[in-house]
Amino acid sequence: MSFNSGTAYPETINHYLGISETSYTWTVPAINATTCRIKIQVLDTIGNVICEDGSNNNFSIHSITLTFPNGGESFQGGSSQIIKWRTTIGQNFSHYRLLMSYNSDTTYADTIAHYVASSETLYNWQVPIINCNTVRIKVQILDDTNSVISQDNSNTNFAIDAEPPGLFSLVLPLNNGWTNATPRFIWQRAYDNFSMYNYELSISMPDETLLISTQDTINPIIPVGSVWQAKTSHANWSSREQHSSVVFDNKIWIIGG
Distance between CA 191 and CA 210 in Å, rounded? Predict the structure, then answer.
């Protein structure tokens, strides 16, 4: 491959192709170049060139990189997210197109945006209200004929969850019961589509300190006058269930549930 109009061919795309082959699937390098050419050579058994032919004219390669979401993220269905990308192509193209896959990059059946101006590198995306953990996004550069010049997609899957985590079941302290000032908080795990939530135990103490834990078992020392809440949470979703208590004479009277 040449990057200088055929003056030199420093890059070898493939060292060996079988004599029965007449085509080759090429992974285009992520570069920005306008004077590219390709040459194909026929070699004998000892590596001597028998004949060769190259591109008659230059062609261009331009790259684009999707930077967010690029895989591993978790989004709330119905939330707003910013799709981000960068490109080396400059302004010599028509527009961008954004697509979405629900099956790990196998197909991109959903079009997020048919036309995004060539000057943009961000897009305010309204996340669909779905439950899926094999989602990917693709960004494409298109010319005036809607032909794809370059494209890139999320490297790995990300998740969309439209349902908040379910209610959890508090085991200890017992509701409407008594316990001491060092209670053991235990709760059963709540159902969630992709286990994207966490538990949050917050204890407001009389000295205005706040203890927050995401463990599902904790043994805090709670002084008289403390109030506690336990909840499941994810992103900016609201609490699903809360319990509160007040300490009297080194005992906690559970009043929530």
Answer: 27
CA nearest 78: which of 236, 241, 200?
236
Half-sphere exposure of 167 (CA within 13 A, CB side): 7
pLDDT digits (tens, 9 = 90+) for 143-197: 899 988 888 999 999 999 887 766 666 666 665 555 665 666 666 666 667 666 5
Two tokens, residue 245: 């208590």
End of a domain among 18, 35, 61? 61
pTM: 0.62
Amino acid identity of 248? Answer: F
Of the candidates 65, 30, 70, 80, the one whose C-alpha atom is nearest the C-alpha of residue 140 is 65
Domain boundaries, position 33:
1-61
Q: Which of 113, 129, 161 is the last residue of a domain?
A: 161
Amino acid at 166: G
31 or 42, higher pLDDT: 42
The amino acid at 16: Y
250 and 188 part of one domain: yes
Number of Cβ within a 10 Å radius of residue 202: 14
- CB neighbour burial string for 5-27, b if at least 16 within 10 angstroms, e if fewer: ebeebeeeeeeeeeeeeeeeeee
In sequence order, the β-bridge partners of residue 163 are none
* CA dihedral of 207, 212, 218, 219, whole degrees rounded to 10: -10
Alpha carbons 52 and 41: distance in angstroms, whole number: 4
Residues 185 and 237 both lie in one domain: yes
Instruction: Round to whole Å and give the CA distance between 234 and 197.
Output: 5
Residues contacting 109, CB < 8 A, separation 6+: 100, 101, 102
For residues 139 and 199, membership in a common domain is answered with no
